[in-house]
Design a protein that fits this description.
With 97 residues, the chain is α+β, with helices and mostly antiparallel strands. It is 53% helix and 12% strand. It has one domain: Ribonuclease H-like superfamily/Ribonuclease H (Nucleotidyltransferase, domain 5). Strands 1-2 form a two-stranded parallel ribbon.
Length: 97
């Protein structure tokens, strides 16, 4: 095992989701995170405080430039969508394409 902050785990999860979109040839991503810090850093409202976070932010920003659409939205902890709602996003976006 290795030590990782909650925000590092949030970024790793986001990066895995973006990579999955490329693998499945999706070009639009609507991401949700319960980390206000991660959302704000990716959206440019907050600056990363150290080299590790800067690297994560940079990777996400560069990777999402290749997408037609990318947005990340903050959600409250514990506010999860029903499984069928989540599935339609995984299948291809809010319209199911």
């Amino acid at each position: 095992m290795f030590k990782a902050s909650n925000n590092e785990v949030e970024y790793e999860t986001l990066m895995t989701g973006i990579k999955l979109c490329y693998t499945t040839r999706r070009d639009s991503v609507q991401a949700f995170s319960d980390s206000q810090l991660v959302v704000s850093q990716v959206n440019g409202a907050y600056k990363a405080k150290d080299d590790t976070m800067e690297a994560y932010v940079g990777w996400v920003r560069e990777a999402t430039k290749l997408l037609k659409y990318f947005a990340i939205t903050s959600v409250q902890t514990g506010k999860f969508v029903r499984s069928w709602e989540a599935k339609k996003y995984l299948v291809g976006g809010p319209d199911g394409k």
